[in-house]
């Protein structure tokens, strides 16, 4: 059954120092309620919005990267509606009508050899937050925290071009990486990226799903909603056009508690912010200043470091991981080994949300680890044990190896002593080994055992063969 | 009794040279206020620190410190301009106890020049009205006839000047709110070019139309006050990128050769005969000063009121949405209310005129009507700007009545909103097009004042004030009620 999925993504410009229209800090997290506020973001009588020009640049950069058209004049509109998290009871946002456009429109993004069209990109202010003591159901009051009110937000609206929930995940992965590479948004911060989705099955009515807490939940919400709409259809009923909320604890979409009426937002131009005419020069300047973006970086990883497409993709999906890799590759020239350690081993220790940054390990560690294995200072098995230690402790691999007494014995004399002792103790096996190749492995196993795995296996094997040869 | 009606410049000069004490002068004005407020009601609140501030000025004078241009000059501030620590009500129940945590830019600038705020002047609620009857603190009365309105919405500011309760006053003008009461009270009031004076701290009624402006008993007083408040402000993106200047410097240079047009439509048969006659007489006097006079027509004027009220009300409906009793101002116990019910209940405390404008404004912005009303109103505005730009290529100034009618009796028009709106016909054009306009006392008829309006091109304040000054010199009219 065919499905059409569209996204409405909100991304905070967390890299800004201040809010969109005042000088309050853009970093509102972990602050006492209503302490990150001023007369302007509280909308006190007589105050006027002062546009953060940097926000305009960041939003334009996002528009450029999403291959959208950008206007030469940026204008703001008021979206009027009453809600307690809105200090002015209107939101300053953008609008596409009457020959005025938002900061980006008519874009297209390629991901995983597919395409999604971007309908519009607009710059707007985030509202405050409603806070409930305990849960929404049990709380006696709704409390309002305006710390977030006025934080710069970029809204990205796609056309309903997705036909598979998996594609949504792939697209969102790419978008996150783009935002990280642009350096405009720290997507790991709670609530810094949010996503509403709309889903219509088999040409049916559109259902909008809000309250999706993170990008990773979006795919799950869509899958649930598709099966819900399917079963509604199978019961012979019609899917209603409505807004539903994603309940991430129960993993279902539920009808909004408050029935949302058809809102008339009475958009009109914000009289306090004259249209900003920056011509097309700004776009050109920004294009020149654009940092390396995920697609180009991936190609470079493949080209310069000889990484496989897959490994490069895994690194690129998380800018922190990609940076981690590049730093490691600078410290040790076997970049493929560094990449393998990151992608196959290190990623196993990271949780989905915080990623590698939650670990105490640094590129320096991985570079050293890869080098020690390459130079046979430690075995690969030992290296994996060491990794387990250092992700927690942040100690250098060489220190841990020392502590574990795990450095490989590649000193010939020391190994010959061990081999001599094994040959003395296993006389019949030695005899057998002269005829049977498999028994050589048994002797090697004994050597490894008596060195607690520290013997350099290659060298030990060589010495065993040499000694056997001298017997015959 | 010592005079309490000195001009601002004269007063500041005397305070600075020590011949008049600021404290003494302020005390005398406060006595005057005590005496006349019962019958006039210019003020909503008085500043109880005024005398202390005056004393500080005197001390600075004694210490030989550098003094500002308005040292010790007592001023009235319209109560929709925010004053830190001093209640700012907008004459509304919604802000009855609201004390702003910050100063409007104009207040900072005036205080830096040494001005002393006597108090907050009465107005129509949120500056919506032409009579000052729509104040939830009760009406202000016209000092020339207490049975009549002082005009509005800056009625308290104008009355305070005519009744010798202040030396200068700040008003705000959205569609004539400075000029109308200036005309009705026989004082001078200037609406500057849009963007010349910061709106930061002016409680918004219709942002794209309104501005703070100076009011006084003479053109030079108004020029001096404008010099102190004008110029770009980083807190207001809509201010123009211009410096202030000394608007008094060339005020006495006369208007020889200045080309003046009389706006034909504004002195037509619909206008009170006495008003039309007063404009003709004024034209003759200006001609005697070697200015040239000709009649001109503004064709788009017929659409001005419709355009003005559409835009103003649309902006009102959005600007006033924030008054919901949740964060500041009116406080209601939220117990037992859902959000929407709470809003409804709290917002029922607006006065009837404000509610009327919010409802009309909400309607004109509704989807499906936006193109029919708001967009059309903006198109008319563009048309008017173009037409006036053409006119100002040929002419330097325009003259017209400020108000097409004489001051109403109190209560006369309160139930006839449309008739009241019609009285703004001559003033709204300056707001729609952003040009400066001044009302100067013209004459009296049956002991009631009539004002003359002079309009100029964008940023022509200097010429406007020069013309107003020149006119004053040949047109001696009472500007203050007998003390």
Structural account:
The complex is a heterodimer of chains A (472) and B (483). Chain A has 15 helices and 15 strands. Chain A is an alpha+beta fold. In chain A, the strands form 4 sheets. In chain A, strands 5-6-9-1-10-11-12-13 form an 8-stranded mixed beta sheet. Chain A has a 3-stranded antiparallel beta sheet with strand order 4-3-14, with no helix packed on it. In chain A, strands 2-15 form a two-stranded antiparallel ribbon. The termini of chain A are far apart. The mean pLDDT of chain A is 89. Chain B has a domain of 333 residues: Alpha-Beta Complex (Amidase signature (AS) enzymes), CATH 3.90.1300.10. Chain B is built from 15 helices and 11 strands. Chain B has an 11-stranded mixed beta sheet, sandwiched between helices. The longest helix of chain B has 21 residues. Chain B is globular, with a radius of gyration of 21 Å. At the A-B interface, loops of A face helix 9 and helix 10 of B.
Mean pLDDT of chain A: 89
Gap from first CA to last CA of chain A:
75 Å
What's the shape of chain A? elongated
β-strand percent of chain B reads: 5-15%
Q: How far is the N terminus from the C terminus of chain B?
A: 9 Å
Order of helices and strands of chain A: EHEEEEEEEEHEEHEEEEHHHHHHHHHHHH
Number of strands of chain A: 15
Shape of chain B: globular
Strand % of chain A is: 15-25%
Q: How much is the radius of gyration of chain B in Å?
A: 21 Å
Please bin the fraction of helical residues of chain A.
Answer: 40-55%
Query: Looking at the chains present, what oligomeric state does this protein adopt?
Result: heterodimer
Mean pLDDT over the residues of chain B? 96
């Amino acid at each position: 059954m065919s499905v059409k999925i569209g996204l409405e993504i909100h991304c905070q410009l967390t890299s800004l120092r201040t809010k969109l229209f005042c000088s309050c800090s853009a970093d509102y997290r972990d602050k006492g309620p209503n302490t990150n506020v001023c007369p302007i973001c509280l909308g006190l009588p007589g105050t006027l919005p002062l546009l953060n020009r940097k926000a305009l640049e960041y939003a334009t950069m996002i528009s450029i990267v999403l291959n959208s058209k950008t206007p030469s004049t940026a204008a703001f509109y008021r979206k009027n509606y009453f809600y307690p998290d809105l200090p002015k009871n209107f939101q300053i946002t953008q609008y596409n009508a009457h020959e005025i456009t938002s900061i980006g429109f008519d874009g297209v993004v390629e991901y995983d050899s597919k395409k999604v069209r971007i309908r519009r990109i607009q710059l707007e202010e985030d509202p405050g937050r409603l806070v409930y003591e305990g849960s929404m159901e049990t709380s006696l009051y709704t409390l309002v925290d305006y710390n977030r009110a006025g934080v710069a937000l970029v809204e990205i609206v796609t056309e309903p071009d997705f036909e598979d929930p998996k594609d949504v995940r792939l697209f969102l992965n790419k978008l996150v990486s783009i935002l990280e590479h642009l350096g405009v948004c720290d997507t790991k911060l709670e609530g810094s990226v949010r996503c509403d989705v709309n889903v219509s099955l088999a040409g049916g009515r559109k259902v909008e799903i809000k309250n999706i807490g993170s990008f990773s939940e979006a795919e799950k919400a869509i899958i649930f909603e598709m099966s819900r709409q399917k079963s509604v259809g199978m019961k012979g009923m019609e899917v209603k056009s409505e807004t539903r909320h994603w309940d991430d604890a129960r993993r279902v979409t539920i009808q909004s508690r408050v029935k949302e009426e058809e809102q008339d937002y009475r958009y009109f131009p914000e009289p306090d912010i004259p249209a900003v005419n920056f011509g097309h020069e700004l776009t050109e300047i920004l294009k020149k200043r654009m940092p390396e973006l995920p697609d180009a970086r991936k190609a470079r990883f493949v080209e310069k470091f000889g990484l496989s497409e897959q490994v490069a993709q895994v690194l690129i999906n998380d800018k922190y991981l990609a940076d981690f890799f590049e730093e490691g590759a600078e410290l040790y020239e076997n970049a493929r080994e560094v990449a393998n350690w990151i992608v196959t081993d290190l990623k196993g220790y990271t949780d989905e949300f915080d990623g590698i940054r939650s670990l105490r390990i640094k590129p320096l560690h991985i570079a050293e680890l890869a080098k020690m294995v390459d130079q046979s200072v430690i075995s690969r098995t030992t290296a994996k044990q060491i990794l387990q230690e250092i992700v927690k402790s942040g100690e250098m691999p060489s220190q841990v190896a020392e502590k574990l007494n795990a450095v490989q014995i590649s000193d010939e004399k020391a190994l010959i002593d061990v081999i001599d002792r094994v040959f003395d103790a296993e006389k019949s096996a030695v005899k057998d080994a002269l005829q049977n190749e498999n028994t050589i492995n048994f002797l090697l196993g004994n050597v490894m055992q008596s060195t607690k795995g520290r013997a350099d296996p290659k060298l030990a094997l060589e010495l065993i063969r040499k000694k056997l040869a001298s017997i015959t | 009794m010592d005079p309490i009606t000195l001009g601002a410049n004269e007063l500041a000069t005397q305070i600075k040279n020590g011949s008049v004490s600021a404290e003494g002068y302020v005390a005398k004005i406060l006595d005057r206020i005590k005496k006349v407020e019962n019958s006039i009601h210019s003020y909503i609140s008085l500043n109880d620190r005024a005398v202390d501030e005056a004393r500080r000025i005197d001390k600075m004078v004694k210490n030989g410190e550098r003094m500002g241009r308005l040292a010790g000059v007592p001023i009235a501030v319209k109560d929709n301009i925010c004053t830190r620590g001093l209640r700012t009500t907008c004459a509304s129940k919604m802000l009855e106890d609201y004390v702003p945590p910050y100063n409007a830019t104009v207040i900072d600038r005036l205080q830096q020049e040494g001005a002393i705020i006597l108090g907050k002047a009465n107005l129509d609620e949120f500056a919506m009205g032409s009579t000052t009857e729509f104040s939830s603190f009760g009406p202000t009365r016209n000092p020339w006839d207490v049975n009549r309105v002082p005009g509005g919405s800056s009625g308290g500011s104008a009355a305070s000047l005519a009744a010798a309760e202040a030396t200068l006053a700040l008003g705000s003008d959205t569609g004539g709110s400075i000029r109308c009461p200036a005309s009705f009270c026989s004082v001078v009031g200037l609406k500057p070019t849009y963007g010349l004076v910061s709106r930061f701290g002016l409680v918004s009624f219709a942002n794209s139309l309104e501005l703070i402006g100076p009011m006084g008993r003479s053109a030079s007083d108004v020029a001096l006050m404008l010099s102190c408040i004008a110029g770009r402000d980083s807190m207001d993106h809509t201010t123009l990128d211009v410096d202030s200047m000394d608007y008094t410097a060339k005020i006495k240079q006369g208007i020889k050769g200045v080309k003046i047009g009389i706006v034909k439509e504004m002195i037509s048969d619909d206008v009170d005969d006495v008003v039309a006659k007063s404009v003709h007489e004024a034209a003759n006097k200006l001609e005697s000063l070697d200015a040239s006079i000709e009649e001109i027509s503004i064709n788009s004027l017929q659409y001005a009121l419709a355009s003005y009220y559409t835009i103003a009300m649309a902006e009102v409906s959005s600007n006033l949405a924030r008054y919901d009793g949740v964060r500041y101002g009116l406080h209601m116990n939220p117990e037992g209310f859902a959000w929407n019910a709470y809003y409804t209940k709290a917002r029922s405390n607006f006065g009837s005129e404000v509610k009327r404008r919010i409802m009309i404004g909400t309607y004109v912005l509704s989807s499906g009507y936006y193109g029919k009303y708001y967009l059309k109103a903006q198109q008319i505005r563009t048309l008017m700007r173009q037409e006036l730009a053409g006119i100002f290529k040929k002419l330097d100034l325009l003259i017209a009545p400020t108000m097409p009618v004489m001051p109403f009796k109190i209560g006369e028009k309160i139930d006839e909103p449309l008739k009241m709106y019609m009285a703004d016909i001559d003033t709204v054009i300056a707001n729609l097009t952003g040009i400066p306009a001044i009302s100067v006392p013209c004459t009296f008829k049956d002991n009631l004042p009539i004002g003359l309006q002079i309009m100029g091109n964008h940023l022509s304040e200097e010429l406007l004030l020069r013309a107003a000054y020149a006119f004053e010199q040949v047109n001696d009219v009472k500007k203050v009620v007998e003390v």
